[in-house]
Every structure is written in structure tokens, then in C-alpha cells.
Amino acid sequence: MSERLTFLAVHAHPDDEASSTGGTFPLLQSQGVRTVLVTCTNGEFGDAPGGIKPDETGHDPDEVAALRQVELDTAASILRIDRVVRLGYRDSGMVGWPQNHHPSSFWATPLEDGAARLAEVLTEERPQVVMTYNDFGFYGHPDHIQAHRITMAALDLIDYEPTVYFNAIPKSVFKGWRDRMRENDGISEHPEEEENDFGTADDLIAAIIDVRSTNEMKFDALAAHASQISEDSFWMKMGREGFMATMVNEWFTRERNPRGLDGVVSDLFAGYR
Ligand SMILES: [Zn+2]
Fold this sequence. Notes:
Helix content is 38%, strand content 16%. It is α/β, with parallel strands linked by helices. Strands 3-2-1-4-5-7-6 form a 7-stranded mixed β-sheet, sandwiched between helices. Helix 4 packs across helix 5 and helix 8 packs antiparallel against helix 9.
């Protein structure tokens, strides 16, 4: 098996690559795997510096996007990502926001458009392993759902079948984090998460990746997204050492399994090496 190994992750916004795969990217790179990140949107509707929300005065979506591009470059270099592809769609905002319907929003863009562009990248790179979100977009954000949809549609346009993983957090782990957050300050960073049934049933997890050797880079990459991940965030408040002691794994479910893998693997390239 001397073919070059390539990993490709499809993420919705600048910062998602760090939060869901910030350990996996440099780990795979250190193992000689080529790593490719596809970021679908520019993240216009993240916070502006100072935590200014999109509906508040002083929030300029284009300035936010420009800042987030710089943050993404920094994070990608920290995570040693070999190639970053920006599809450049406009952030769709959260569910129900008028931004959902902006003609250039990712959500309003026909699926075939994103799928065709992603299929082009897949055909160029021919990754054996592709990662994206589940059909709920991990937490219901329209851009995450659309990232899932274009990925699944693109897979139908290419001439081979990669192994596909969706990022996931086991319910048991989510519960532990929530308890920790409540303990810390009684306030959740993401109150909307409290309303949802978060996390994936533990027995559906098909890959548990030990990222202890690279989670310091993950911490630094998250910190590079300073406009979105403030000093007060769940992660930053742990501090570097707390983060490294706590965020020891990344988890995935397996959705396409051309190598016929069975059970839980500890390597996303199981079956290929
Ligand atoms: Zn996101």
C-alpha cells in the first residue's frame, strides 16, 4: 500500500476545523498523511471583535469575514494543514435568521453548485478518508447542514468511494463537559445547546482518536480564532494545561465503509495502512 494517503475535511466556518478536528489534522500530518481542509463559508455572521453580535450596531459582516480569513490562515498553519480550499459562500446565519435567504448565502445556494465544486477538489486530491458533519450539522446550524449535504452529494459525483466519517461527541462526554461548565460559572457558552439533545449515543462512535500528542496545537489553533473564541470561552478558560488534560480524544461515526471495517478504530486510516 504505497499510495499517498490524503485526508479531507469539509467544514462550515473558519474555526470549525480547529474545534472538531484540531487534534486530528496535525496528528495525521505527523504520520505522513496529506491533509486538506475545505471551508465552505467566510463566516460573516460570527461575532465582530469585542463580542459584537450580528444584529448589534458595529457589526460589519465583511470586516468579520476578512478578519476570520486571517485567523483561518493562522490556525491552518498551526495545524500544519497542507491545503486550504475556501468555497467562499456567504455565512447563512443561525436557523430562522433573514440571512438564511440572502441569494449568495450557502444555505440558499443550490446544492448542485457546492457539490460540483467539492467534487472537483475530491477528484484532484482523491482522499481515502473524508470527514464532515451528520445531517443535523452536528448542532443544527444551516451552514453545517449544508456542508453535510454538499459532501454527500459530491460523493455521488466522483468515481471512487472514500471512507466517510462524521464528527461526533459521545453523549457521556458531552454531559461531563456540561457539568464542568456549570461548575465553572453556572453559565453555558452556548445556551442554545442546552435546549437540544446533544451528542451521539456512545455505542454509535466508530473512531476514537487519541490526540494527546497534538492537542496543544489544537489549543493554539482555537486561540488563533480569537474573534470567535474569547478568553471566556469554555476552552480558553481551561487554560493550556487544563485543555491538554481534558481534550484528549476526537470522535467520529463511520458513514461510508468501503474497507469493511468493523467496530471502533483508533486510526481514521484503518484499512489503508
Ligand atoms: Zn461552524
